[in-house]
Amino acid sequence: MTHLDYVNVCRAVNHGEDRKLENHKNHLIGEVLSCNADYFNVKIGEGWQVWSREDCDETAPTMGVEANKTSKVSDWII
Q1: What separation, in Å, do the N-terminal and C-terminal C-alpha atoms of the chain show?
Q2: CA distance 20 to 33
Q3: What is residue 75's three-state secondary structure?
Q4: Is the Cβ–Cβ distance between 19 and 31 less than 8 Å?
Q5: Per-position b or e across 45-71, b if 16+ CB within 10 A of its CB
Q6: What's 10's DSSP letter?
Q7: Measured in whole angstroms, how far is the alpha carbon of residue 65 from the centre of its chain?
Q8: Which long-range contacts (CB under 8 A, 24 or more apart) does 22-28 make?
Q9: E strand or H helix at 11, and its extent?
Q10: Of 2, 17, 24, 25, which one has the greatest count of Cβ atoms within 10 A?
Q11: What confidence category does residue 60 fall into, taking pLDDT thresholds of 50, 70 and 90?
Q12: C-alpha dist (Å) from residue 54 to 2, 5, 39, 57, 63
């Protein structure tokens, strides 16, 4: 993710919007809780992780399919 994309995601989250990311290193999807110094705090299931913006991209809308936040993208069936 570029720094500009990071800033846009963080602004949206700070204004109360839900944003989800895919981490390319662990292939998990999580919901952004907060941002700090080019890192995201991301909710994964009942816990949370810190992800670098460089390891992430914002996920596309799931078109009505609710994904499990601990699922891997490759496990999704649409």
Answers
A1: 25
A2: 9
A3: helix
A4: yes
A5: eeeeeebebeebeeeeeeeeeeeeeee
A6: H
A7: 16
A8: 22/56, 22/57, 22/58, 22/59, 22/73, 23/51, 23/55, 23/56, 24/55, 24/56, 24/57, 25/55, 27/72, 27/73, 27/74, 28/70, 28/71, 28/72
A9: helix 3-14
A10: 24
A11: confident
A12: 7, 11, 9, 8, 26
Tokens read off for 73 = 């993208």
pTM of the model: 0.74
Q: Which residues pair with 44 in a beta bridge?
A: 47
Question: What is the spatial distance between Cα 13 and Cα 47, in angstroms, rounded to a whole number?
Answer: 18
Q: What is the pLDDT of residue 78?
A: 40
Only one residue has tokens 């109360």, namely 16
16-53: pLDDT as tens digits? 999 999 999 999 999 999 999 999 999 999 999 999 99
